[in-house]
Amino acid sequence: MKIGVNLDFNNTYEIEYLSGDLQFFQFTSFIEEGEELLLKIEINISNNIFLPNVFNLGFGPIKEDGTIDDRIAIRHTDRAKVYSTLLLGTLTFLRTVEANVLVGIDGSDKIRAYLYYRLLQNNYDYLTQYFRLIGVKYYVRLLRGNLNTDPYSADLKMLPHIRT
Amino acid sequence: MNQNLDKKIAVLIAKANETKANKQKSPAISSNLQNSLAEKIKTREQAKSFMTLINAL
């Protein structure tokens, strides 16, 4: 898969629906097979005790039960436009919440995690105009045991409480 | 800061506020809708199609 995606907030799809709290929105993308595909995006609190105020960004097409299918492989005709729209919605959410709120981006598998990592890295200069980007290998850091000196680290005694 | 982006964000926030306002009006609509649906949805298949449609909205 190509990962040379140039994000551009001037090139986004129309967000067709937005919830009142901006944590849920939808837009339609086009896929290479020539069809339209409705994408659902949810920004939910992560519920990880070591990552307070961190929300998780999830997106994908909608399954029959109404949940997001974040494991399906989709060939979007314009991936830059899809990711730019996702981040536009995320930026809008962040503008309306307190300054200590963060949104985490993680892949549903290692390949996706790497893809998003490269996407953020390749667009770092552009994105830092609008976001404060923080890279965290948080489960690795949790194991280091420096609870009092590092907000993303924790004492080993607390590990049983980690929700994965 | 990108002025076009600021405008886009303002439009989206206005849209979210509209959703919030519509939601506050929704109990009456919801009740009417429920009565109407109870008359029209007779089978499990119809209910399933309806839920698929609602989820897609």
Mean pLDDT of chain A: 82
As an assembly, this protein is heterodimer
Can you count the helices of chain A? 4
H and E order of chain B:
HH
Please state the structural category of chain B: mainly alpha
Low-confidence stretches of chain A: 152-156, 159-164
- The amount of helix of chain B comes to over 70%
In whole angstroms, the N-to-C terminal distance of chain B is: 33 Å
The level of helicity of chain A is 10-25%
Mind explaining what this structure looks like?
Chain A is an alpha+beta fold and 164 residues long. Chain A is built from 4 helices and 5 strands. The longest helix of chain A is centred in the middle third of the chain and has 18 residues. The radius of gyration of chain A is 17 Å and the shape is globular. With 57 residues, chain B is an all-alpha fold. In chain B, 89% of the residues lie in helices and 0% in strands. At the A-B interface, strand 1 and helix 1 of A face helix 1 and helix 2 of B.
